[in-house]
């Protein structure tokens, strides 16, 4: 299958999933996760009408983004060390993986120098999985409260990677819990916009995520194929 065909079939599947639960397909954004895939794959996707990409590694992303300045939108979806906050703040349109105050503060400081407002999501470890990054659901409110004085950051919602499970009902429960948490925090006016973004769902579970309210899905393998191994 070609990248273009894959994008079209994912878009069809997104529309079907949205209609199946009476949602407007336009209310859901598709991130094409291009980590470890070459710039040429990004260009091919752009020719197929895909202009939103997700990257996990700052150095790799920097080379790609600088090669096509202003031509596409990039979200950072990987783990960031606070010492990479400067580059992250410069390069990305959104950082989806803010999970601690120290990182938020570093991003805010760099954005001040750049005179940039930066959209962010709070990464939540919704299943309290010891192997996953993210603030625990219980601590998400406290983190959002701490972000209020950081004027350069615009917290728009929540992101999660649930624990891997073969049982789709367990996965569904995690997505639902993220939505409920987003609703609770939204009522407390802890986000910079009226609605709450929910970034959840990948190649194997994005339909369930859409049924549970995802506004952003992150799909890599089903668009670009298997990722080349790192050496
Ligand atoms: C790699 C990655 C994805 C894409 O996963 P696929 O299974 O290839 O669709 C989505 N989200 C995050 C955070 C990732 O790191």
List the helices and strands and how they pair.
Elements: H1 3-20, E1 29-33, H2 39-47, E2 52-55, H3 58-67, E3 73-76, H4 85-91, E4 94-98, H5 101-114, E5 118-123, H6 140-147, E6 153-159, H7 168-187, E7 197-199, H8 206-211, E8 216-219, H9 221-224
Parallel strand pairs: 1-2, 1-8, 2-3, 3-4, 4-5, 5-6, 6-7
Helix pairs in contact: 4-5
The structure holds pyridoxal-5'-phosphate.
Structure description:
With 231 residues, the chain is α/β, with parallel strands linked by helices. It has a single domain (3-223), classed as Alpha-Beta Barrel (TIM Barrel). Helix content is 42%, strand content 16%. It is built from nine helices and eight strands. Strands 7-6-5-4-3-2-1-8 form an eight-stranded parallel sheet. Strand 3, helix 4 (85-91) and strand 4 form a beta-alpha-beta unit. The model has no long low-confidence stretch (mean pLDDT 97). Bound molecules: pyridoxal-5'-phosphate. Pyridoxal-5'-phosphate (PLP) binds next to strand 8 and helix 9.
In brief, what are we looking at here?
The protein is an alpha/beta fold. It has nine helices and eight strands.
């Amino acid at each position: 299958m070609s990248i273009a065909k894959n994008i079209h079939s994912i878009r069809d599947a997104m529309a079907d999933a949205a209609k199946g639960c009476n949602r407007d397909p336009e209310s859901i954004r598709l991130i094409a996760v291009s980590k470890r895939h070459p710039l040429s794959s990004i260009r091919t996707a752009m020719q197929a009408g895909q202009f939103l990409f997700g990257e996990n590694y700052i150095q790799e992303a920097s080379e790609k983004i600088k090669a096509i300045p202003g031509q596409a939108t990039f979200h950072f979806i990987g783990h960031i060390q606070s010492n990479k906050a400067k580059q992250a703040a410069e390069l990305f349109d959104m950082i989806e993986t803010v999970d601690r105050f120290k990182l938020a503060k570093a991003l805010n400081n760099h954005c001040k120098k750049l005179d940039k407002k930066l959209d962010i999501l709070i990464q939540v470890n919704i299943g309290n999985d010891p192997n996953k990054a993210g603030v625990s659901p219980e601590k998400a409110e406290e983190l959002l409260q701490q972000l209020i004085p950081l004027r350069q950051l615009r917290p728009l919602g929540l992101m999660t990677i649930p624990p891997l499970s073969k049982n789709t009902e367990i996965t569904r429960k995690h997505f639902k819990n993220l939505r409920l948490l987003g609703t609770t925090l939204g009522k407390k006016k802890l986000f910079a916009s009226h609605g709450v973004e929910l970034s959840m769902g990948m190649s194997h579970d994005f339909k369930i995520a859409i049924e549970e309210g995802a506004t952003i899905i992150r799909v890599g393998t089903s668009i670009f194929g298997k990722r080349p191994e790192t050496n």
